[in-house]
Amino acid sequence: MGTAESQVAATSDVQQHPGTTTAASSPVTDGFHLVIDALKLNGIDTIFGLPGIPITDLTRMAQAAGMRVISFRHEQNAGHAAAIAGFMTQKPGICLTVSAPGFLNGLVALANATTNCFPMILISGSSEREIVDLQQGDYEEMDQLAIAKPLAKAAFRVLHAEDIGVGIARAIRAAASGRPGGVYLDLPAKLFAQTMDAHAGRRSLIEVVDPAPRQFPAQDAVQRALELLKSAKRPLILLGKGAAYAQADADIRAFVERTGIPYLPMSMAKGLLPDTHEQSAAAARSYALPEADVVMLIGARLNWLLSHGKGKTWGGKDHKAWGGQKFVQVDISPQEADSNVRVDAPVVGDIGSCMSLLLAGIGPNWTRPPADWLTAIAERKAKNIAKMAEALAKDPTPMNFHSALAVVRDIVKANPDACFVNEGANALDFTRSIVDMYRPRKRLDVGTWGVMGIGMGFSVAAAVVSGQPVIAIEGDSAFGFSGMEVETICRYNLPVCVVILNNNGVYRGTDVNPGGGPDVAPTVFVKNARYEKLMEAFGGAGVHATTPGELRKAMEEAIRSRRPTLVNAVIDEAAGTESGRITNLNPKSGKKS
Known about the structure:
CATH class of the largest domain: Alpha Beta
Number of helices: 22
Number of strands: 19
Oligomer: single chain
Strand content: 15-25%
Number of domains: 3
């Protein structure tokens, strides 16, 4: 592959790039520059990736063309960064990888983006088609398109330079339109060096018009939903991350407040309304779900995170029983309705359009929910909040999840615009219930799959996209999946404060080898590991915190200084439960030890 200096291309005014050697011939461009120009034409100014054959020169040229290229230590983390950038901006995030192993590393993020409805494009270099198809043993030979298809919303391959504009346009539209998702774009190595007339190249590029067009729901669907809500004695609204993605914040808040209906936010919808809002029923979740008679889902799916709308969570007698609630579901996909239980009032369209029409249909004579329903929720909420306050007020030695997260709770309250990344098992569960959010799209976590390893990728992207400080609360196990990216954080001098809740192992550090051998238990890590030294090794600030006071001081300084910081917050190694709050999903052996 040629170097950046040897390539020629056309800029938007069809001038030759430095290094072009022509006499009377027309200026030319090449595949490298067509890819860059196509992305820039569509307002994409950042690439997350990892350079190598055959895309090293593409990263150099993109940077020379004014794009921001954030280079990671592992493609999976770059992919997670691209995906969450898409969630935050509604514009497909771009992950660029090398062929075969690099492409495979990016697939976890691609599949996760598709599952979570994050708009993302994984662009990978690949081996030559004619050799791959005959399985002749090319360098990193792999039919990447075929492998990506089951894991992506769409997958495309571009073989000719004149089709680069079409390929990128199709990828953008597929990623952003309808229900967003991950898209794969395959660019064989030979494509980049192809040349063509610069004028023709410019004309071949496509600026995508309205990549995610509004889809208005039918008026009768809107009316049906409102009538069902109006008839409810115990209505409840569930806000999902789709509601946060829609950026229809004002209409969603107005609808909740004008109807007076209590609401529950799923984890990445926290902050659409402040968690301290009087209508939040989050602290009374276990009461509200089974007792509600009409439930309105806004950008939320009745998947495992909501017990599929069945079972004791919803008032059923067993895990298959339906509690009898009636459902209103606002979703852009008509296929989502009836996926687990009957949906009585589907409202199909983009959430912004749906909420605008629903809000307009409320009218001045809307009757708020019965007082006994609101009082029952308020009483249980107050009782649980008081119980939580007691747990947070304790100051055990060593720290536990509650005493450490009481500090984090205060820091987030004082810095509501900071982005908040969270992953782990117990570290995720405790944080989600303890730390309040006050702004939309500020809480970024493991999402639908509960996949570990999103922490540092999400943190990098959040800092790059928002320009705000980032607080990442990590379990010590979760941090291990992407911990080397602290070098990336330091390299780009990003204002990220990583807090590791360190209890010496997976779930906790107290397990023992059941066979009595010399090896430690599979769930146990090196005792008293000094994770903060890793950040120090790359020039950031590392803090070893053993008390709430030390943790508070370190976090406040990190926010103030905007310096890359890692706080190793040592907590009781016995703190935590196996699998966090999803222990029921962890099969147990029937054998007795």
